[in-house]
Design a protein that fits this description.
Blueprint lengths: L1 H24 L3 E2 L7 E3 L6 E3 L6 E7 L8 E7 L7 H9 L2 E2 L11 E7 L2 E15 L8 E15 L5 E8 H6 L1 H8 L3 E2 L3
């Protein structure tokens, strides 16, 4: 009986180790098995985390630069639901306020690019961010002055894929070039 338990434990450890090795060797992330899944390659310095919500397909910590804290990038996809690109952008802009109380949308830097056959909208804005720990952003909210958002939305026939990074402006600004390179890795899955 003892030898059976030892052999069983060794088999479980071997399987777990094999799973960890295969995950570590993967350079790409595939975030869905639908016909138009998005593949991407994150920068090596971004830290993959367990998503805080079941609504998130993936989550990364973008380490702080200098004396500023880390930023967080979340990946979302809601096939057939989740609202339009414009509705989501307006909601995201509403999570920021400006010192002069003007609408955030007038301060947004927005680019529309094509990446490997995908239409991608890239946006950047700054201001005071109203952070909620609720997955649905229902509050309570904590005001975070000096924050920024850098986001990309890739449009597919299965609905948009959302990549949203929020954090201290200094940290977001320090990651802008790497974020742009990250967006250039977006591609449709061959499956």
């Amino acid at each position: 009986m003892k030898s059976f338990l030892v052999i069983g434990s060794i088999m479980i450890l071997t399987l777990c180790t094999a799973c960890e090795i295969s995950e570590e060797k993967s350079d790409d992330n595939k975030i869905d098995t639908s016909s138009e899944a998005i593949l991407y390659t994150p920068p090596d310095a971004w830290i993959s985390e367990m998503p805080r919500s079941s609504m998130r397909k993936a989550q990364y910590k973008l380490p702080g630069k200098g004396n500023t804290g880390a930023a967080e990038l979340a990946v979302f996809h809601f096939p057939g639901t989740g609202g339009s690109v414009d509705a989501n952008l307006e909601r995201w802009y509403g999570q920021f306020t400006q010192p002069d109380r003007s609408p955030t949308r007038v301060h947004v830097k927005k680019n529309i690019i094509e990446v490997n056959g995908l239409k991608v909208i890239v946006v950047y804005t700054t201001g005071t961010y109203f952070q909620s720990n609720s997955p649905m952003m229902n509050g309570p909210f904590e005001e975070k002055p000096g924050y920024a958002m850098l986001a990309a939305i890739a449009e597919t026939s299965q609905g948009p894929w959302f990549f949203k990074a929020v954090g201290p402006q200094h940290t977001i600004d320090a990651w802008r070039e790497e974020f742009d390179n990250f967006v250039k890795t977006f591609r449709k899955s061959a499956s």
